[in-house]
Specification:
Layout (H helix, E strand, L loop, with lengths): L4 E5 L4 E5 L3 H46 L9 H4 L3 H4 L11 H23 L20 H25 L2 H9 L4 H28 L9 H20 L9 H20 L20 H67 L10
Antiparallel strand pairs: 1-2
Helix pairs in contact: 4-5, 4-8, 5-7, 5-8, 7-8, 7-10, 9-10
Length: 364
């Protein structure tokens, strides 16, 4: 006879008759629970291993990243930027303003002013057609916004470097370590905006906007869409001030402001120089859905270009660290080794000359 177990179900008020095979089911359930526990333990071990690998990879990437600029501290980035970053070139070894760097700064300022004048006065354009209200509608284009930022930052840079040249040599070390003033910060912001948007204007114009049948390849077109990027690329490779990734809110903010401006300009009934309803064909606010998507993609592209410019700045600092600082340290080590060798030779000569075994023959 099998033993029959009864249990009372309080919910339904009924009695159940349990078959003896339930014992096997209980054993099977225990085995299932133990297998499930083992699977959870294995998953936990796998997650821990993956986290350790990710943390190790993060540490390696951080170590490689910081090796390019070993003294950098993200918490003190704003405090490490002093006036000498704006006075001096990245590649010079002396602590005084070089006359050749000052000449470069004034030459860049004059070039940008010439390009701005040619664009504003429409000098050098091969088209025989004269646009209606050219001077009144010049400021509505993003190209001219970027060109204006390039010109302002170039003249501010020339004035700042001139100030560094005019400081006396005795006071220059004090001025060099002083924190940045409002003029330096204004130049820093304009320089970042001009660098990022010069590349954006060149890329977007020659890939999206340029139409060979409408836009002629003349001197003005090349100056405002090619020369600006070339000059800012040279400037990025030479100047001493840094590019901060945290300054992306300035560049993306300009993108948001321009997108809002184009929408308001369309609602106000404004047209471009050819009397089209949209300033740029791709940014047509008569189709607001498409215009909003294009604006969002454009702001994202601004951040990507800013990130690329920041990486180019880090590459410049890395090259400077490896080429200039490491070579100087190696040269100093060689000089110190040579000095120790010469001093040891002098000590040996003194010991040989003044030793007790030395015989001095003096003839009268």
């Amino acid at each position: 006879m099998h033993t029959i177990k009864l249990c009372w179900c309080h919910q339904w008020g009924q009695s159940w008759t349990l078959h003896p095979m339930m014992n096997r089911f209980k054993l099977t359930e225990r085995k299932f629970i133990s297998v499930h526990t083992m699977i959870l333990a294995l998953n936990l071990m796998t997650d821990m291993c993956s986290l350790s690998v990710l943390s190790l990879a993060r540490m390696m990437v951080t170590k490689i990243w910081n090796s390019c600029f070993p003294d950098s501290d993200p918490a003190q980035e704003s405090e490490q930027v002093h006036r000498h970053n704006f006075y001096l070139c990245q590649w010079q070894r002396s602590k005084q303003v070089k006359i050749i760097y000052l000449l470069y700064r004034w030459l860049a300022a004059i070039l940008f002013l010439a390009v701005l004048s040619c664009s504003l006065l429409d000098i050098g354009r091969s088209d025989t057609e004269h646009y209606e209200n050219h001077y009144a509608k010049w400021w509505i284009y993003l190209t001219h916004w970027g060109l204006l930022a390039c010109t302002l930052q170039a003249w501010l840079a020339a004035w700042i470097v001139t100030q560094g040249m005019m400081v006396d040599r005795d006071d220059f070390e004090i001025q060099r370590q002083a924190k940045t003033s409002r003029l330096h910060r204004l130049y820093w912001v304009l320089y970042t905006i001009a660098t990022v948007y010069s590349f954006i204007i060149t890329i977007c114009y020659w890939t999206i906007v340029h139409n060979p049948e409408i836009n002629k390849l003349d001197a003005v077109n090349l100056m405002v869409h090619v020369l600006n990027s070339v000059l800012m690329l040279i400037d990025l490779a030479i100047v001493g001030q840094p590019i901060r990734l945290s300054h992306a809110y300035w560049t993306t903010g300009i993108g948001v402001i321009y997108a809002i401006f184009t929408g308001i300009y369309f609602l106000a009934g404004g047209t471009n120089r050819r009397n089209d309803v949209s300033i740029y064909p791709l940014l047509d606010w008569s189709r607001p859905g498409k215009a909003i998507v294009i604006s969002a993609c454009g702001i994202l592209f601004v951040f990507i270009v800013h990130l690329v410019v920041f990486c180019m700045y880090r590459l410049r600092v890395c090259l400077y660290t490896k080429v200039c600082i490491w070579s100087r340290n190696r040269r100093m080590k060689k000089m110190s080794t040579l000095g120790r060798t010469l001093s040891s030779l002098e000590d040996a000569q003194k010991e040989n000359f003044l030793g007790p075994s030395t015989i001095i023959d003096v003839k009268m």
